[in-house]
Amino acid sequence: MKSVVTTGRTVEEAVTSALVKLGVTRSQAKVRIISEPVKGILGWIGGRPAQVEVSIEEKPDEVVLRLMRNLFDRLSMTAVVRCSYHSESDVNELMINVEAEEDVLPYLIGHHGNTLDALRNWLTLAYNKQMRDTSFSTVKINMDIGNYREKRKQKLIHLADIAAEKATHLKKVIFLEPMVAVDRKLIHEHFQNRSDIRTESEGKEPNRRIKIIPVDHD
């Protein structure tokens, strides 16, 4: 929800001022009168102007773009943010892609995407706070920075395929490096239709890892 508070000699004047600032028409906005104008002595001494709050319901992608741009402004960083909104019968999803200079990307992504995950969590909380009373309150937010997730996905699948080949060739259990939950889920799903191996996760965070077990291992 985006809103502005304005004043004017009359309620209508205050509303008009707010509509101009928001760039919308009266039919697109919700008006709340904070206070009516009060005439003062001799027309102005002790008087008080009308004050109103005019708000509009922003679209999900508009809210996300505003939040992200404000964040990068505060961080004094330059980044290009693209956002797409997809609505289906039971799932509303926002996909945010961020592009920045190569020397900035490591700070935004973090070790194994930890900072990226933190940014996505922050954005989810900020979005939910602003949109909780709107028709767009239930939205799944996904984020990628510098195409990191796709690159990470391809790298993990490549390493997992090599490990699976080794497991079936040697007929022994092969352990992958510790991974965060989202990466482990990716590997499990990648191998779910394989009949010659199965995968299991073991250990405690942050050292929880996947083991690849050949069906005919010793």
UniProtKB/TrEMBL annotation:
Keyword Transmembrane: no
Region annotated Jag_N domain, chain positions: 5-55
GO cellular component labels: cytoplasm
Gene Ontology molecular functions: RNA binding
Protein purpose: A probable RNA chaperone. Forms a complex with KhpA which binds to cellular RNA and controls its expression. Plays a role in peptidoglycan (PG) homeostasis and cell length regulation.
HAMAP family: KhpB (MF_00867)
UniProt protein name: RNA-binding protein KhpB
Native organism: Alicyclobacillus tolerans
